[in-house]
Specification:
This protein is α/β, with parallel strands linked by helices. It has 2 domains: about 15-45 and about 175-265, Rossmann fold (3-Layer(aba) Sandwich); about 50-170, Rossmann fold (3-Layer(aba) Sandwich). Helices cover about 35% and strands about 20% of the residues. The chain contains 12 helices and 10 strands. The protein has helices spanning about 25-35, 60-65, 75-85, 100-110, 125-130, 150-160, 180-185, 200-210, 215-220, 225-235, 250-260, 260-265, and strands at about 15-20, 40, 45-50, 70, 95-100, 140-145, 165-175, 195, 220-225, 240-245. Helix 10 links the parallel strand 9 and strand 10 (about 240-245). Helix 3 (about 75-85) packs parallel to helix 4 (about 100-110).
Length: about 270
């Protein structure tokens, strides 16, 4: 069951933002929104379930432990590797790359030496242009991630002549939502804007909510983290304003909201 962290009553003139990211990743973004005078409520559209060392295949562990590089794709990947007892330490010969500032902060929390961490949040294409300057052609690469995701980074590094394997340390699942929670979250207070941080969050949002609210839902403006997600939203029927955060992430989404004058139009 999903518990509503903050279930506001509808206040005229107040910007209401629906936050769809996993609950354990939402706190900092929600605080940013609250500090900006925004009313927030949560509908986590993905449940993250971390694996343990016993649930990883022997093949995955062997490939990972003989790799020259581990590329962590998210903060969840770091947490998952920690749960599996597989984070490289100061004595490891494994070089570590981090995608995104949140991933870098998570590695730093565990005092993991980082060999490559771009200052800005980059997409896979931008990251590839930088990381291919760091790796050698004979290097073996492990991409630490969940059980699903884009194949672009792996396929592109393989094309450079490297051996690449996945170390999948968590899986994503669709949360459950009761009828009562649906009414509390959306029917009683349809959001002014929906914050979407991944393609799967967008897909799950439409699965979680009954068809009776889809017409209103598809008319809601969105803030998303990529052009790819914006395209997917249009394909799924969203027809209001879709703003892409630049850079992707908390600050980028906050900037996107401000740039579109949603704050100015919905002041308390």
């Amino acid at each position: 069951m999903i518990a509503v962290a903050e279930n506001p009553t509808k206040k005229p003139g107040c910007l209401r933002v629906l936050v769809t990211r996993p609950r354990h990743q939402a706190f900092e973004f929600i605080q940013l929104l609250k500090n900006a005078g925004v009313q927030t409520f949560e509908l986590p559209c993905i449940d993250i379930v971390f694996k343990n060392k016993q649930s990883l295949s022997t093949e995955q562990k062997e490939h990972a432990l003989r790799s020259n590089w581990w590329i962590f794709t998210s903060a969840n990947a770091v947490s998952g590797a920690h749960e599996c007892g597989l984070l490289p330490n100061n004595h490891s010969a494994i070089k570590v790359a981090a995608i995104g500032q949140a991933t870098t902060r998570s590695l730093q929390k565990y005092a993991i030496p980082i060999s490559f961490a771009p200052v800005e949040n980059l997409n896979s294409e931008q990251l590839l242009n930088l990381i291919k300057l760091q790796i050698k052609q004979a290097d073996k690469i492990s991409i630490v991630r969940g059980d699903t995701g884009r194949e672009f980074l792996k396929n592109s590094i393989v094309a450079l002549g490297n051996e690449v394997h996945y170390l999948e340390v968590y899986h994503r699942q669709l949360p459950t939502l009761t009828t009562t929670e649906t009414k509390q979250i959306l029917i009683s207070a349809m959001p002014c804007v929906i914050s979407i941080t991944s393609d799967l969050s967008l897909i799950n949002l439409l699965q979680l909510l009954p068809g009776s609210v889809h017409e209103q839902l598809l008319a809601c403006p969105l803030v998303v983290n990529s052009e790819r997600c914006a395209k997917l939203a249009k394909e799924r029927g969203f027809h209001n304003r879709i703003q892409v955060a630049c850079p992707p992430g908390d600050q980028g989404q906050l900037t996107a909201l401000s740039a579109q004058h949603w704050f100015q139009n919905h002041r308390r």
